[in-house]
């Protein structure tokens, strides 16, 4: 596959995944789709670290856009430097995206393991962290009994953090692929010939 076409495919995939991460993190800020519980006392630290917005979102959106641009016509067209300039920029952007995706993966994994912060026995706490640990993921029938408020807090938390974990894993892979692809593009140039449609 041509380095330019590969860059375009990876870039479009990264843009999509970054938007998924941003949306998942925004939804984590509004448990059960309501702003009633949106404050620092009622939401877990992992939600406020905004790993989906900043790490898996904005830090991956930039390399996604850079990869799509690297897949387009180079600064000098065919000949001269081809797409080498844009591919070089994509190497650095993808490395930064890799850091953001790893940050998102680490925070989301921690949030999934610790469970949500919710109201139990009149206090906002992490009931799962102190009693169940990660094994709570297998006890779905008891989820509603573990938290009084917000309603369906554990289902909301598990669904969105699982989505962040999966999306950030894919981002790590795609950013790694683009680092290698763009490095090959810098060394070898774009394989498309002059006059090839973009």
Automatic annotation (TrEMBL):
Compartment(s): Membrane
Parts of the chain that traverse the membrane: 7-28, 48-70, 91-112, 154-184
Record Pfam families: L6_membrane
Main location: membrane
Keyword Transcription regulation found: no
InterPro entries named in the record: L6_membrane
Topology class, membrane: Multi-pass membrane protein
Name this protein carries in UniProt: Transmembrane 4 L6 family member 5
Protein's organism: Pipistrellus nathusii (Nathusius' pipistrelle)
Lineage: Eukaryota, Metazoa, Chordata, Craniata, Vertebrata
């Amino acid at each position: 596959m041509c380095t330019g076409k590969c860059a375009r495919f990876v870039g479009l995939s990264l843009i999509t995944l970054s938007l998924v991460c941003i949306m998942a993190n925004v939804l984590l800020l509004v448990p059960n789709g309501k702003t009633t519980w949106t404050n620092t006392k009622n939401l877990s630290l992992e939600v406020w670290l905004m790993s989906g917005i900043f790490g898996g979102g904005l830090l991956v959106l930039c390399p996604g856009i850079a990869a799509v641009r690297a897949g387009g016509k180079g600064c000098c067209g065919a000949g001269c430097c081809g797409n080498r300039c844009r591919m070089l920029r994509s190497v650095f952007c993808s490395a930064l995206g890799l850091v953001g995706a790893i940050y998102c993966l680490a925070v989301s994994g921690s949030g999934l393991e610790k469970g949500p912060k919710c109201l139990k026995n009149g206090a906002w706490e992490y009931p799962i962290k102190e009693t169940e640990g990660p094994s709570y993921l297998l006890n779905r029938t008891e989820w509603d009994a573990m938290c009084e408020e917000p309603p369906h807090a554990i289902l909301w938390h598990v669904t969105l953090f699982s989505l962040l974990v999966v999306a950030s894993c894919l981002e790590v892979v795609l950013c790694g692929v683009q680092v290698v692809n763009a490095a090959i593009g810098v060394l070898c140039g774009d394989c498309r010939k002059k006059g090839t449609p973009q």
